[in-house]
Each structure stands twice: as structure tokens, then as C-alpha cells.
Amino acid sequence: MLLSVRNVYAGYDESMILKGVSIDVPEKKAVALLGRNGVGKTTLLNTILGLVGTNSGTIEFAGDSIERMPSDRRARMGIGYVPQGRDIFPGLTVWENLNVSLRVAGAKGAEAESRLQSVYELFPVLKDMLKRKGGVLSGGQQQQLAIGRALLLKPKILILDEPTEGIQPSIIDQIEDAIYAIRKKGEMSVILVEQYIDFARNACDSFYILERGSVVQKGDISLLDDDMVAKYLTV
Ligand SMILES: Nc1ncnc2c1ncn2[C@@H]1O[C@H](COP(=O)(O)OP(=O)(O)OP(=O)(O)O)[C@@H](O)[C@H]1O
């Protein structure tokens, strides 16, 4: 396993949100994290990222226990994150946004060029808009830029929190294709938090459903049936 969350309890001050959550993310596989609003999906991501502390339980990543590590160290170990909402610098151009990641990664010359080319292959629109300010892009283009920036860091795992939220269908297809391509290339694992079930079905290998801070269903993505969707996911 690349990432193993074991029996984690975590939350905020008074309220325990995660109550004994365990999930496994295999190398180079994409895992969907599903559940209605407020069940604890973002809290689980934040626990993996180190933005929320654990009360008990363990988190192993690439063979190391990380549950006590600061979040910047987890990021350097290869945990990449695209938060909900588009995390880009609106006042910088597309190129400058991408270049920030290249600098953080310390990627130069041919290495930088090859990382950029793989991002342009996934999201050709970014190459056409290098001189535009991030803030003037459409929501979908900003989401592509945010994912592109995370990919330039070459994480071992890419964590995406609701990438389709508020994005038009044609761009959703492009983002779905991109996750599919990332998976096919076999360069990294993915955790995808998603409300849009068809997207998760197409993009992921396996799934976990959370309810009130606990995993209530899990399995191969082919096992995610309409009864489960009705019981745990439709509003
Ligand atoms: N910073 C915080 N302080 C206190 N409580 C919080 C905080 N963030 C989230 N919560 C609470 O934790 C619970 C789980 O929220 P969380 O955001 O993890 O759920 P979610 O499944 O990601 O839902 P959504 O899809 O709405 O983001 C909610 O009851 C929420 O109110």
C-alpha cells in the first residue's frame, strides 16, 4: 500500500468527526472517497495532509508513519493536494502559476520542460493561455491549472477535493480524461473526493463511502451500485 489510514479518530476541539476510519490506497490506483455533505470527507483529507491532528490511529505513507509529521514534510514526501475551490494565484499569469510549482520542485532545464509538456498534454488549453492572468480563466480552466500545478511537483499521491464542483460538463469530461490518463501512465495514486458519482465511477478503481465519520461501504468501483448510491449518496 502507498497510503494506509488505520482506525483514525480525529476532529476539531469539542467534536470528534472521524470515528475509527481506515482506508487503503494502493500504488498507482485511484480511490474515490464518497458521502453526503458533512460526513467527514474533507476532514479525512486534512488528517492525511496534516492540517488536522489525529487523536488516535495511524497513517502510513510510503512505508513511514506520518501521523505526527508536519504538513510541509508530508508534502515534500510526495503528498500532493488540490483543495476544493481553485487554488491558483489569480494575479499571476498561467505561466507564472506553473513556474511557481517548478521552482518549488527545483525542476530546471530539460526536466522542467518535460514536466510542463506532460501537463500541456493533459490540459492543452493551458498552453494557449500562458500569458493570461489566472483570475480571468473560467472556473474549469482554473481547476485544470490547479491540477497542473500539483502535477508539476510529481507527487506520489494526488489528492483532489471535489474537482467538478461548479464546473461546466464539457470541462468535467476533460478533467475525467486527465485523471484517467494519470492513472494509465501509472505515475501516481489518486484520492478523489466527489459528489458526482459518474465521474468517480469513470475515474477511480475503488471506493469508500463515509457516513457520520465512519466507513460504511467500500470495494472495487464496479461494486458501487444504485442501491448504495440511493442509500448513502443521493440527497
Ligand atoms: N474547522 C472546523 N471546525 C469545527 N468543525 C468543523 C471544521 N471543519 C469541518 N467541521 C465539521 O466537521 C464535519 C465534517 O465536515 P467535512 O467538511 O469534513 O465534511 P465533508 O464530508 O467534506 O462535507 P462537504 O462535502 O460539505 O465538504 C461537519 O459537521 C463540519 O461542520
TrEMBL record:
Gene3D superfamilies: P-loop containing nucleotide triphosphate hydrolases. This is Urea ABC transporter ATP-binding subunit UrtE. It comes from the Bacteria. Keywords: Amino-acid transport, ATP-binding, Nucleotide-binding, Transport. The gene is urtE. Residues 3-235 form the ABC transporter domain. Belongs to the ABC transporter superfamily. Pfam families: ABC_tran (PF00005). Coiled coil: none annotated. One of its GO terms (biological process) is L-amino acid transport. GO terms for molecular function: ATP binding; ATP hydrolysis activity; branched-chain amino acid transmembrane transporter activity. The keyword Transport applies. PANTHER family: HIGH-AFFINITY BRANCHED-CHAIN AMINO ACID TRANSPORT ATP-BINDING PROTEIN, HIGH-AFFINITY BRANCHED-CHAIN AMINO ACID TRANSPORT ATP-BINDING PROTEIN LIVF.
